[in-house]
């Protein structure tokens, strides 16, 4: 809709307010950060209404809700929402000069924004931002000088530039094109990041605005130096959720000191999708910003700008920052005497006895910070941002030279990390404590071989043997700890009884009763002073007993259960049993029972041993009275012992694909911490493996690791697991050497070369000859087997070309190296006079014998054969005057004079 009602009020109002200059960031003041006339495609007024979008935030980048926006006469025009934003409709014939009305504060005032101004009444919408400054100790300014002609009464507005304040370092709207004096835009591509280069107009970046496309998202805004691959400057800022706030209402803010820049330098606004993924934006289709371009990833789009803007401020006060931290060694001990320095600026400090340091007086910017000390590896941290008035923390851990690290996880049998586990080495005194997720790292471990042990309260200690630590590398050692065996509780029945369910039916604490038949009573029976309390069952015709589930068993270990039992009559049969899977049903087929015992009138000890199949096992004591008389069973002194593992073995060979043994390979299991190193013939053996199913991996540096899954280990048996490893890398690029710069043979070429493959060796060389490196136009690829040289005859070579011999190498795993080529050789025509040489065309290679040096200067000579008039100039070589030499080189003409260039003089 075009509103064509002409009023002069807007012009008059502007005259009052456009004289605004730089605004001080005074305490308790709302400072006008920017204002601008927006483009047609940026306006968001309901029903096409002319609007002003107002943003209010504080110096920490937080939106300020509930702030009243009034005109210069005090008329309330709206209140900011939770995002610190309010949209104000412009009704004719008004011109609104805005400020923030907050009791006890002051506020800058905008110019008078009007939608109805001559000479046309097309699109006029506006946006402005106020920042509340509460701290007067760090004053600064926004450049409110504006570019463009505002509310002009002459000419067509489409011929005028849309006004904006210079605090907007980058601003994409072009008023000179399109519908109602606005920008023409187009949709960008869906990519991982978008951005715009811009020139800073202050020393801080405080806000930005980007028109992202599609459904609502949050985007992450960051500033880089120079362009899309430059180092980051300051911190990231996250936009409001664009699904709640359309583009015209969205502004992304930084704390006032978060992004420090240098006025006049070029920076890059980078926009990515929060949480990852792709996004796209609108881009302005004309080159209306002269100091930068729109980017998708790292690709620049000429004559395109990102639809949006960047706001800058100039902040004074503190001008330098600090870098501080602590330097520790690989064992996490403070390290004294370490030099910590920056890559530029010459800033440095030395650590104290407690390892701390502080570098003060550093100019704001991005630095690489390095810690170094004799006898320790030097460590550098990059992209460390220094902010004026702030301290940037940079800590270091330096490993002793020759040291490596041991790292991994300590977990329980359910795969959950164990916190507080202690990991130690058998020598060297190295140790660490696992974090909440079970992870640990031991730094600064001297190169060597170690047994590594993990222990934790409530778990069985585990050791992984013969782990090799190399300098500058990390050795991974993971542990799965088994719950420590808890044993039986209240096995002597002196730990009390509970009503189950009443005083006539009592069960010993920690035990549970079961009744398979009948209705026996059970209770707490005093026997004598030697045994004191026992568990009893009595009445006629019953089958019943007790059981207890025991935690912490190790699958594969054997466990022996013993119980003393007493029957008052031979009609009472007794059994004890164990469920190796931990079930609690005495009728289950999993329970392994003893034979029945019917001894009466005396205590007997019954014994049962099983191999645990779970980390929980269950013990049972059962009795049966087959008589109608009241007969009794007494139970006492129950014990359960861990007799240790019944283990198996994993063994086999580690070979290459040709069947050759590979020594020094590490073979390890995915759980249990079992491992071994292959010997000279590739053989290995891992003994003492608890029965179970494992994934077994063979690995060695330079080889592709291989894992075989689902390998079952049984008691007292050997499981064979063989490996064939593949070379992890191709041979080195051959280094090719020919016979020099020139040869006199036009029918043969010769070259030698060298390459290596430490894993599987060189299985074949191939060579080719061409007039370019890698070329095959003279001789196509030809095998020499494993011979590292060639003399190729029968060629027809000319005197104007350079010939290159290229070589490639193949290892035993059929991996080809990159091509290596000689530096080129030319064929020289052998002549015995200068005059003969001059008869050939430029570009031909000649070799003149018997020439005499008549003069020399610098790296030039004059030589002749016969009379002096037969001489020729030679460049690129020297020799003494009067000597007889052979000259080889390429004919050329320079300034009308024949010359031999690139010469070799013998």
Percentage of helical residues? Answer: under 10%
Alpha plus pi helix count: 2
Shape: flat
- Structural class per helix/strand content? mainly beta
Based on CA atoms alone, the radius of gyration comes out at 44 Å
Spatial gap, N to C terminus:
91 Å
Q: Poorly predicted ranges (pLDDT <50, ≥5 residues)?
A: 1-26, 44-48, 176-181
Proportion of strand residues: over 45%
**Roughly what is the average pLDDT, rounded to an integer?**
86
Number of strands: 79
Into how many domains do the coordinates divide? 7
Largest sheet geometry: 6 strands, antiparallel
Can you walk through the features of this model?
- The chain has 906 residues and is an all-beta fold.
- The chain has seven domains: 9-167, no CATH class; 321-398, Carboxypeptidase-like, regulatory domain (Immunoglobulin-like), CATH 2.60.40; 407-482, Sandwich (Immunoglobulin-like); 497-645, Sandwich (Jelly Rolls), CATH 2.60.120; 648-727, Carboxypeptidase-like, regulatory domain (Immunoglobulin-like), CATH 2.60.40.1120; 735-826, Immunoglobulin-like; 829-905, OB fold (Dihydrolipoamide Acetyltransferase, E2P) (Beta Barrel).
- 2% of the residues lie in helices and 49% in strands.
- The chain contains two helices and 79 strands.
- Strands 1, 11, 14, 17, 20 and 26 form a six-stranded antiparallel β-sheet that branches. A six-stranded antiparallel β-sheet has the order 19-18-21-16-23-24, with no helix packed on it.
- A hairpin with an 8-residue loop joins strand 71 and strand 72.
- It is flat and about 140 Å long.
- It starts with 8 loop residues before the first helix and ends with a strand.
- The relative contact order is 0.05.
């Amino acid at each position: 809709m075009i509103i064509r009602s002409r009023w002069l009020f807007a012009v008059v109002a502007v005259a009052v307010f456009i004289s605004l200059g730089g605004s001080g960031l005074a305490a308790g003041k709302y400072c006008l950060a920017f204002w601008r006339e927006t483009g047609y495609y940026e306006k968001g007024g309901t029903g096409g209404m002319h609007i002003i979008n107002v943003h209010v935030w504080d110096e920490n980048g937080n939106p300020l809700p509930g702030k009243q926006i009034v005109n210069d006469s005090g008329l309330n025009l709206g209140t900011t929402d939770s995002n610190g934003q309010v949209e104000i409709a412009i009704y004719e014939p008004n011109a609104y000069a805005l400020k923030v009305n907050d009791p006890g504060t002051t506020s800058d005032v905008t110019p008078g924004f009007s939608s109805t101004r001559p000479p046309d009444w097309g699109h006029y919408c506006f946006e402005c931002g106020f920042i509340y400054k509460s701290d007067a100790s760090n004053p600064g300014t926004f450049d409110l000088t504006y570019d463009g002609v505002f509310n002009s009464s002459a000419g067509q507005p489409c011929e005028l530039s849309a006004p904006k304040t210079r605090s907007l370092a980058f601003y994409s709207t072009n008023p000179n094109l399109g519908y109602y004096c606005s920008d023409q835009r187009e949709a960008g591509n869906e990519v991982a990041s978008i951005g715009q280069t811009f020139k800073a107009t202050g020393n801080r970046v405080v806000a930005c605005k980007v028109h992202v496309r599609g459904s609502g998202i949050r985007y992450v805004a960051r500033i880089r130096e120079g362009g899309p691959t430059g180092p980051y400057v300051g911190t990231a800022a996250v936009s409001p959720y664009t699904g709640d706030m359309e583009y015209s209402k969205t502004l992304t803010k930084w704390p006032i000191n978060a992004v420090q820049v240098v006025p006049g330098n070029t920076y890059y606004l980078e926009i990515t999708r929060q949480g990852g993924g792709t996004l796209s934006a609108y881009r302005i289709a004309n080159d209306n910003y002269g100091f930068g371009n729109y980017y998708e990833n790292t690709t620049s789009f000429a004559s395109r700008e990102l639809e949006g803007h960047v706001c800058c401020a100039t902040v004074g006060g503190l001008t330098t920052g600090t870098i501080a931290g602590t330097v520790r060694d690989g064992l996490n001990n403070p390290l004294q005497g370490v030099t910590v320095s920056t890559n530029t600026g010459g800033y440095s400090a030395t650590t104290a006895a407690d390892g701390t340091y502080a570098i003060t007086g550093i100019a704001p910017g991005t630095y690489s910070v390095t810690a170094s000390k004799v006898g320790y590896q030097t460590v550098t941290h990059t992209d460390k941002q220094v902010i004026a008035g702030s301290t940037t923390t940079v800590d270091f851990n330096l490993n002793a030279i020759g040291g490596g690290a041991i790292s991994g996880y300590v977990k329980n049998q359910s795969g959950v990390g164990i916190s507080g586990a202690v990991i130690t080495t058998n020598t060297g005194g190295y140790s660490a404590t696992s974090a909440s997720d079970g992870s640990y790292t031991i730094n600064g471990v001297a190169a060597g071989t170690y047994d590594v042990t993990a222990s934790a309260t409530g778990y069985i200690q585990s050791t992984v043997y013969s782990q090799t630590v190399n300098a500058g590398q990390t050795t991974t050692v993971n542990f799965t700890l088994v719950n420590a065996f808890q044993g039986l509780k209240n096995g002597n029945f002196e730990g009390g009884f509970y009503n189950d369910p009443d005083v006539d039916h009592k069960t010993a604490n920690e035990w549970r009763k079961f009744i398979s038949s009948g209705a026996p009573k059970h209770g707490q029976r005093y026997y004598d002073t030697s045994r004191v309390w026992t568990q009893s069952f009595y009445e006629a015709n019953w089958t019943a007993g007790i059981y207890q589930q025991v935690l912490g068993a190790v699958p594969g270990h054997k466990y022996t259960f013993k119980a003393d039992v007493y029957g008052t009559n031979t009609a009472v049969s007794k059994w004890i049993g164990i469920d190796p899977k931990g079930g609690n049903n005495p009728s289950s087929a999993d329970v392994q029972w003893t034979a029945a015992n019917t001894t009466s009138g005396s205590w007997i000890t019954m014994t049962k041993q099983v191999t645990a199949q779970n980390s929980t096992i269950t013990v049972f004591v059962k009795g049966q009275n087959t008589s109608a008389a009241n007969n009794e069973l007494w139970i006492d002194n129950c014990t359960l012992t861990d007799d240790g593992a019944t283990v198996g073995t994993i063994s086999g060979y580690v070979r290459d694909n040709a069947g050759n043994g590979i020594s020094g390979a590490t073979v390890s299991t995915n759980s249990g911490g079992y491992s071994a190193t292959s010997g000279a013939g590739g053989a290995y053996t891992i003994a003492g493996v608890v029965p179970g199913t494992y994934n077994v991996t063979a690995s060695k540096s330079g080889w592709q690791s291989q894992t075989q899954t689902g390998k079952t280990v049984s008691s007292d048996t050997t499981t064979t697991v063989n490996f064939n490893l593949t070379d992890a890398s191709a041979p080195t690029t051959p280094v090719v050497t020919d016979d020099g710069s020139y040869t006199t043979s036009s029918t043969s070429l010769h070259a030698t070369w060298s390459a290596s493959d430490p894993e599987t060796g060189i299985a074949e060389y191939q060579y080719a000859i061409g007039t370019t490196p890698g070329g095959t136009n003279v001789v196509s690829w030809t095998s020499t087997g494993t011979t590292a040289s060639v003399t190729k005859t029968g060629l027809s070579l000319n005197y104007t070309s350079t010939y290159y011999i290229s070589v490639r190498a193949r290892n035993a795993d059929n991996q080809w190296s990159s091509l290596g080529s000689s530096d080129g050789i030319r064929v020289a025509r052998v002549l015995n006079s200068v005059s003969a040489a001059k008869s050939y065309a430029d570009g031909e290679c000649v070799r003149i014998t018997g020439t005499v040096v008549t003069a020399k200067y610098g790296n030039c000579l004059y030589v002749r054969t016969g009379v002096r008039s037969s001489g020729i100039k030679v460049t690129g070589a020297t020799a003494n005057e009067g000597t007889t030499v052979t000259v080889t080189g390429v004919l050329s003409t320079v300034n009308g004079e024949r010359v031999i260039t690139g010469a070799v003089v013998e």
